[in-house]
Amino acid sequence: MPELKLFHGTRIVATPAALDTAVWPQDALALRLAPDEVFVTPAITADIVDDQHAIVAPDAGFAGAWIVPDEALEFLQRSCEWELPLERPAFAQGAVAGLPVKLWLEDDRVLFLVPAPYATDLEERMA
Amino acid sequence: MNEFIERNVRLSWHAAKRSYEVVIVGGGGHGLATAYYLATRHGITDVAVLERKYIGAGNTGRNTTVIRANYGIPEAVRFYQRSLDLYASLEEETGRGITHRQKGLLWLAHSETGIRAERARAELNTAFGAGTEYVGPDEIKKICPQLDMAGGGVWPILGASYHPGGATARHDRVVWTYAEGAMQRGVHIHQRTAVTGLIMDGDRVTGVETAAGPISAGAVVSAVGGHVTALASMAGLRLPIRTHPLQAFVTNRYGLGFDPIVSSSNLLFYASQTAKGEMLLGAEIDRQPSYSYRSGHHFLQSCGHRAMTLLPFLRNLRVLRQWTGVCDMSPDYSPVMGKTGVGGFYITTGWGTWGFKAIPVGGEQMAELIATGETPDLIAPFSLDRFARDRTMADRGSAGTH
Amino acid sequence: MSFHIPCPNCGARAIEEFVYGEIVVVPDSITDPDERNLDRAFIHGNPEGPTSERWFHAMGCQRWLTLRRDTRDEQIILTAR
Question: Which among A116, B130, B247, C30 could disulfide-bond with A63, CB atoms 3.0 to 4.6 Å apart, if both were Cys?
Answer without folding.
Answer: A116
